[in-house]
Automatic annotation (TrEMBL):
A Gene Ontology BP annotation from the UniProt entry: small GTPase-mediated signal transduction
High-level lineage: Eukaryota, Fungi, Fungi incertae sedis, Microsporidia, Nosematidae
UniProt GO cellular component terms: cytosol; nucleus; Rab-protein geranylgeranyltransferase complex
InterPro entries attached to this UniProt entry: FAD/NAD-bd_sf, GDP_dissociation_inhibitor
Originating species: Nosema granulosis
Region (Disordered): 261-312
Descriptive protein name: Rab GDP dissociation inhibitor alpha
Superkingdom of origin: Eukaryota
């Protein structure tokens, strides 16, 4: 790939990413990913360990022959994400298996089926005749959810509502989603995993003009000019890598079964008023009143993007530094004369010179060069003739919100009279620098460096990951548990665990075996949790544990 220019560069190939790209519209777009495969399905344990979507991977037992979803989830047949896939036309090329059963499993290992048809409702033992009639009246629209809740006995209410809601905090949304899917199969799962959906969506997007590049060596740089242009000035600067910090939204799980999982304990306690451990399964529903407005939209809205943020996500507030010449406070980009009277300014700490970072520029002609002292990185401000315009080329650290990565690319003057030795420590040669300067002057604010060539973009929609509170344990086992394919909320006495069982018809494991996913908030799934499901070690082929990384979406706009 030769150097290419685009309006938007988009980071990520998850299913939700591909749907978002399809909705971008008329802009010339390129999608990039620091992975050699689409999506987050992994057939190899080493690839899972290196994935940005997980952390803290533990392998208790492993045998090849099954694939792992880094972000396991199920789809509602009438849910928002599945409808988006249907509208995109990819369901014509994708196969799904039906998750036939939905259970609530209690700490005594007893399980109760959540009904999805009137036939199942009649066969459900924990409903009495009157309660079955009430549910029918609800389905016919003759009563609302509050009336149903008030008239159900405690046992039925405890089983039904906890089986539907589980550890979700938005009770109303979960109940409405359940009712919207009544009469349909509970859940769906891609037969070939979510990577297959990502690939099909990407093909569809490519047919509409979207470009794709997958390269594990991709680097992203922001391009920004500071100061005034001067035909004689030559300056070289060096900058640490910076992180994009503007959060647009966290990726939302698409269905009730795996929704609202990325919540801290404090966030949940703030909303519910108490911790899950201190809340009895029945009592938590007693004070809940459900909005009867049928037109309510149960889907979560994305956060608005603040227009007060720059492309690094830092707030555009005035940052001042102390001038060591005349002891006055000046803004970080100052065009007022300091009255230095030929004196050399004192040295400034690096943190005072940069915000995003941007260089201090004075009306009195100066030159800024980098010097290293034993006491730390210090920038010196010295006199020089002529104004300057500095092109800051700064690497953006994305993929993780933890820490900063050292970065050795210098920031360079926009004037083109350079020598190759000036840039010997940088990532670009003199020819590349000239091309970068030309593109930056034409409004391209970002450079994506790949093994296939340089990509320039006016806008960047990036993503980073941070550890969530969700822990996963995935097992490949020889024998089925309750059913071959089911979803369940398992209550272990203190917290809920989400359980998903799929068989070899999903093509995710060897013939005659099963894959079990267990998702738990705030702590790892331990062996005591496995005992509640009666999983015996002799039947375990593979056993892997990891923590999910929450995916945060950022925009330069």
């Amino acid at each position: 790939m030769e150097d290419s220019c685009f309006d938007i560069a988009f980071h990520g190939t998850l299913v939700e990413d591909c749907v978002q790209v399809k909705n971008i519209g008329k802009y010339k777009t390129i999608v990039f990913d620091r992975s050699e495969e689409y999506g987050c399905t992994f057939d190899d344990i080493e690839k899972l360990k290196s994935s940005r979507y997980v952390t803290d991977v533990e392998v208790f037992k492993y045998s090849k022959g099954f694939s792992i979803e880094a972000l396991p989830m199920v789809l509602r047949p009438n849910g928002k994400l599945f409808n988006s896939l249907r509208e995109a036309g990819v369901n014509n090329f994708s196969e799904y298996i039906v998750i036939d059963h939905h259970f609530l499993i209690l700490e005594d290992s007893k399980y109760y089926r959540i009904p999805y048809t009137k036939t199942q409702l009649v066969d459900t033992a924990y409903f009495n005749f009157k309660e079955r009639h009430l549910v029918n009246k609800l389905l016919e629209g003759e009563i609302n959810l509050n009336e149903l809740k008030d008239k159900l006995c405690d046992k039925t209410k405890r089983i039904l509502f906890n089986g539907i809601v589980g550890d979700n905090t938005d009770y109303e949304a979960c109940l409405r989603e359940y009712l919207a899917n009544f009469g349909s199969p509970p859940f769906l799962f891609p037969k070939h995993g979510y990577r297959d959906i990502s690939e099909n969506l990407s093909r569809s997007n490519a047919m509409c003009g979207t470009a794709y590049v997958l390269d594990k060596d991709i680097k992203i740089y922001s391009l920004a000019f500071n100061g005034e242009e001067d035909s004689t000035a030559e300056c070289i600067f060096k900058s640490d890598a910076v992180e994009i910090k503007k959060e647009v939204s966290a990726i939302k799980e698409p269905s009730i079964a795996f929704s609202n999982t990325v919540k801290t304990r404090h966030e949940r306690e703030q909303r519910t008023g108490s911790s899950e451990e201190d809340t009895e399964l029945l009592e938590r529903f007693n004070s809940v009143r459900i909005n009867s407005d049928e037109s309510d939209d149960i889907s979560s809205d994305n956060e608005d993007i603040s227009s007060d943020n720059d492309h690094t996500g830092q707030i555009n507030e005035k940052i001042y530094t102390e001038c060591c010449v005349n002891n006055s406070r000046k803004s970080n980009i100052c065009f007022n004369p300091l009255g230095c009277d030929g004196e050399t300014a004192e040295r400034y700490p690096r943190d005072h010179l940069y915000t995003t970072p941007k260089n201090i520029v004075y009306n009195k002609p100066v030159d800024i060069s980098l010097n290293k002292e034993k006491e730390g990185d210090i920038y010196f401000v010295k006199e020089r003739s002529g104004y300057k315009q500095v092109l800051c080329i700064t690497e953006i650290v994305s993929g993780s919100t933890d820490g900063r990565t050292p970065f050795n690319t210098p920031k360079m003057d926009s004037h083109e009279s350079y020598t190759s030795s000036d840039y010997s420590k940088g990532d670009f040669d003199i020819t590349q620098i000239k091309d970068i300067i030309s593109k930056a002057k034409n409004g391209y604010n970002f450079l994506i460096s790949s093994n296939f060539g340089n990509i320039f973009s006016k806008s960047l929609i990036d993503s980073a990951t941070t550890p969530s509170n969700v822990f996963v344990r995935v097992l490949n086992v020889k024998e089925k548990l309750i059913q071959k394919r089911f979803f369940a909320f398992l209550y272990n006495g203190t917290s809920f665990i989400r359980v998903l069982s799929i068989d070899s018809s999903s093509r995710c494991c060897r013939e005659g075996t099963f894959v079990i996913y267990l998702l738990k908030n705030d702590s790892k799934v331990d062996d005591r949790d496995l005992k509640l499901l009666k999983i015996h070690k002799c039947n375990v082929i593979s056993d892997v544990s990891f923590q999910i990384n929450e995916v945060l979406r950022y925009s330069s706009n």
